[in-house]
Amino acid sequence: MTGQPLGPHRSWADVRGISFDLGGTLVRPEAEPTTGQVAQLLGISLAEARTLMEQKAKRCRISPADLAGELAAAFLRPDLVGRLTYVLERARQRAGQPDVYDDVRPALAALREQGLALFAMTNSLGSSLPEHTPAAFQDLTRVLYSAETGAVKPERAAFTAVENASGLRPKQLLHVGNSLRADVEGAAAAGFHAAWLNRARADVAVPPGTVCLRTLTDLPLLLSAGPAPVPIRNSEAH
Questions:
Q1: Cα–Cα dist 55/53, whole Å
Q2: What is the total count of domains within the chain?
Q3: Residue range 185-237, pLDDT digits in tens
Q4: Residue 85 sits in which domain range?
């Protein structure tokens, strides 16, 4: 995928707020994601575990111990309560002290200086919600967790939560994330502008007109004077 540097992205002239995905976008994910660890303990596939978590665990608050108990009971494995609780409690602790990428704080500070309202929106286990907003997110207006909104990306209601929190219309909002389905397609369906953060330099086809970022430090350039990447077209992907 290639692109020629241009000025600010013309279609983003009306953007007044930005929402970001967390895991893989602002926060470095664990080598083995929590849902993957749960899947291994329960003896199910990662896809099955994700579907299971999206049914309830990502839509409401719940303690690590209570979620562990529910999962163990559902699979008739009471012997797993302790190990599941350990995995889920560790995830909650990490959420309270997130390991953010090096480009996050300077990018957020620059965007804040440009007068943009900044949010994070994440599909989160209800057992992983931190007690307080982490200091690393001090430049964000608010972090919206699916366990609080009851909606997971790419559902329209997840993006509606950002609209309600910001008081902005969809065309005034930009969503940035590393998932083409949950972030880019979900945002586009909701009427948001969208940008795909391709930190891994993945060589994949993307929806026509998708803006592709390789680092968050490119983002302020798209919204102010200076060079910026152009939208990536499918014809440019191999």
A1: 5
A2: 2
A3: 999 999 999 999 999 888 888 888 789 999 999 999 999 643 334 444 443 33
A4: 34-96
